[in-house]
Write a structure and sequence with these properties.
alpha+beta, Nucleotidyltransferase, domain 5, 9-stranded mixed sheet, 14 helices, 13 strands, globular, RNaseH-like_sf, Transposase IS4-like domain-containing protein, transposase activity, DNA binding
Length: 414
Amino acid sequence: MWDLTEKKWGWTENQIGFNSEEVILTSPDPIRGLDEPSRKTIGNQKYRFDGRKERERFKLCWSARSIVYPELVMKQRPNAQYEPVQLLSFLTYAALTNDFVNDAAENYPLPEDEAPHPNTVFYRTKKLSVAEVLDQFNSAMERIIEVACQRGALEGKLDLAIDLTDWRYYGDKNDPMVLRVKPKDGTTKAFVLATVYVIVDGERFTLRAIPVSSLSNKEEIIEELLDYAEKMVDIGTLYVDREFFTVDCIKVLKQKNIKFLMPATKNDRVKREMEEGHPRVVDFEYGVKRKHPVNFNLGIVENDTGDVKTFATNHDVGKEDLEKLFDMYSQRWGIETSYRVKHQFRAKTRTKYYEPRIFLFLFSVCLYNLWVLINFQVTKKFGEDSKIYMTAKTFTDRMVKVLPEPEPPPIDPN
């Protein structure tokens, strides 16, 4: 087992909550996490871990770093001043402060001569190709998913969602991977990722994220995401944004025999069906001018505010079930704070280079997934009202401050 001493790690008695001159902590196995015993006997003294909030958080954050950080290896020379884990800790701090990477360096809690320079972060990430960035983060995400499966977080039939996430951009519209999007926050330009989520403990847990370019086809995006998701989980119902309401996308879903639910775009034919009254379920043929149209159930229902909504599904549903089905979509996937919370894990940058941007984007997804997984473990072991539960800010704060050393302590030969 690893052992940490107060002298080596610079912890004070107030920080660790013990009243001894020197305290030995036993680190959890990187995979076991909360499965560590709740009691330890060190010398003649027994220490309880269950009631010590900060100790459990320490163990969890150590495990979290051990899952992801080894998978993210930035290109560097043998004599490089900073190890990747030091740079990743710095980026976690930038995410914690939700600040620009350059500005976060001024407040990073290390002496100026020890803190990584922001240019080092950009230089290292810019040397990676987009394919290399994606390979590293796919590997990191798979490790998180592997641990999530071991913890029972992805058991049984699970509902999924696919949607598009954008990162607004204020640079040149001709820069690589920049897409034109709906006006928001003073710009119509953004970098876009397509993501597939599963709900874990009420939060969106990302299984895979892929970048979207001007050459991307929506049906290819949805097929790639689902090919991966089918390997990882048993899919219940797939909830899809209206951007994917196309003949080709629906064909993919029907070919895969996946139950789906999505808002239907109100084209002229859909509007005519709406005028016939509601609630109703219509066997709707979509793409009638094409050689091979698709059929699905078109649900027409009025929401609580009196607006008539339409959605497409291949569920066998009667009009008496429409309100329930629509409420399931709107409440579970629409009224959510996941996007707002996820932004708390993303460092800001002004760089126009795509490689550092996609690196920061995917790093924020990994941090978010770890936060969801850790709190799932806490709820499973200590209950929903446990004081060990961490907010997004507390989690990123502990990821930076609780583990001040970049490398694990030496293994105790005894």
